[in-house]
C-alpha cells in the first residue's frame, strides 16, 4: 500500500504545473514547520529534526526555483527565503521552537498568497503554462 501511495505522489509531482508545484511545496513546508514546532514544544528534538531538515530542503528548492528577474518583488522574496533558511539551520542546531514558529509565521501568509495567485491563473498545464510560471516567479 505504501508503494502505491509513493508512486501516486511521485506521479502527482512529476505532472504538476509550475504553479501547482509551488503551492504543493508551500503546503508541505508549512506542514513540516507545524510538525517540527509541535515536536520541539514537547521537547522532542529527535522527532523535530527530520521535519526541520525537510523544511530546509524545500526552502532550498524554492530558492532554486525563484527567477529573480521575473518581477520587481523577486529580490525581496529571495531575501525572505534566505532569512528563513538561516533561521531553520539555527533552529535545527539549537532546537529553538520560537525560530520555527517565526519561520512558519512568515511563510503561512506567503503560502496563502501563492495559492490565491495559482487559483487566479489556474492549476492545469494548459497552453501558456510557461508564461504563467513567469508571472509567479518560478523558473
Can you describe what's shown?
With 139 residues, this protein is mostly helical. The chain has six helices and no strands. The chain has a single domain, classed as Four Helix Bundle (Hemerythrin (Met), subunit A) (Up-down Bundle). It has helices at residues 2-14, 18-41, 45-65, 74-94, 97-121, 129-135. Helix 2 (18-41) runs antiparallel to helix 3 and helix 3 packs antiparallel against helix 4. The mean pLDDT is 86.
Key phrases:
about 140 residues, mainly alpha, Four Helix Bundle (Hemerythrin (Met), subunit A), about 0% strand, globular
In a few lines, what is going on in this structure?
The chain is mostly helical and about 140 residues long. It is about 80% helix and about 0% strand.
Shape: globular
Strand content: under 5%
CATH superfamily: Flagellar protein FliS
CATH fold node name? Four Helix Bundle (Hemerythrin (Met), subunit A)
Largest sheet: none
Give me the secondary-structure category.
Answer: mainly alpha
| C-alpha termini separation | 34 Å
Give the CATH architecture.
Up-down Bundle
Count of structural domains: 1
Task: Describe the secondary structure blueprint for this structure.
Blueprint: H1 2-14, H2 18-41, H3 45-65, H4 74-94, H5 97-121, H6 129-135
